[in-house]
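User: quick one, fold this
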Amino acid sequence: MKTDDYGSLYPAPAENPRPNGTRGKRGLPNAAKALIALGLLLAAGAVQHFYFNGRAPAVANARGMADTGVSVGYDFDSGAAFYSFDSGNFFLCTKDGMKYYTSGGVQKWDSVFSLTSPVMAAQGEVAAVGEANGHAIYVYGSAGKLYEQHFDGPLLSFSVNRSGYLAAILGEGDGYLIEVFGPGIKTWQYHFSDANIYPMSADVSSDGRIVAVAFADANFRLTARIVFAYINNAEGSAFTDNIFSEQRIDGEMPASVRFMEGNRLLVFTDARIRCYQPMPDSTVTQAWDLELGNKIDCAAFYGDKSFAYASGDALLNRSDADAVGTVNFVSLDGVKTGSYCVGKSVLTLSMGFGAAIAGTGLEFSAIDGRGNLLWTYASPQNARQMIFLGNTGTALLASDVSANVVAGN
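Assistant:
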């Protein structure tokens, strides 16, 4: 979703000077705009099951997992979610706040907030919490709260990188406001209100230099557009609104963007996964693209080093599609390093230590980056999530009212 320099979405400065990074307002009545926006959001929801019949083949050397007796409890309606990255410690997010535990179930700290339906985004040792149409985001590191940000407009989407930089997409009247904070200080903002063009996802590079925003353009033919901007005004002074490149993909719906190591940007659409590389001369090149034969049911990232995705239903007219439930591992070079089919639709997917845990309901499969099955676990009760904890032989299983540590036996 990228093209060189300014595309048609961003006219050259001489054609359309814009004070304070604000685009001129034009477009549909609010009711019509809302209907189009709703349709795009529904389509995006179908595209990005990123928050994410048969059985897997038996593997003789896959070891089993057993409960260790370590448990953390919470209320059924707490909205509990967990996160850990290559660590024996983990974050527990609920609607009442964020807590941090050791793998032995010892609480290290507790930070209080109040949200109705919390959503957690995380990378590395940093986790951020907000909620749809909310007005606040709370950002945490392993030692506690780093900062919080409050907004006038409703929160539509957000991400956080491993350095603590936050990107937020907000509603603003009949337009949108995209803001970057890092950490805790506003470093870039962009007001946007072009007709039938909707910001879908934004992310900040780990060095805090570049923000990328995915737009869905529904004016004529559906087009995915990815815009790159320098966050620092000094570095971006030669460009209007600091925007130095736009890439476009005709006929595809953008779902999500994610910066990886070396400022490489992954772009997920309904048909492909692409990787783009910003260059020192402010151009952007496409490093590789991976055509999809299936819808993506879930995707997960191993920090900024690699990623995995689970294949869902086949796309139209694709005879070479994966079997439903195939988990594919992809390196930053765009090479599939391994795959494994769990035999049914994947509902949850997490990564740690270069491996993944795929959940299909009550059954979980741990798979290494080469596609080898490490172990399986059948939960005796409803399970929301399973993540690695400390190593690939230990995991945290989250049920409706408690999270239990399990380990290889």
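User: anything notable?
Assistant: Helices lie at 30-47.
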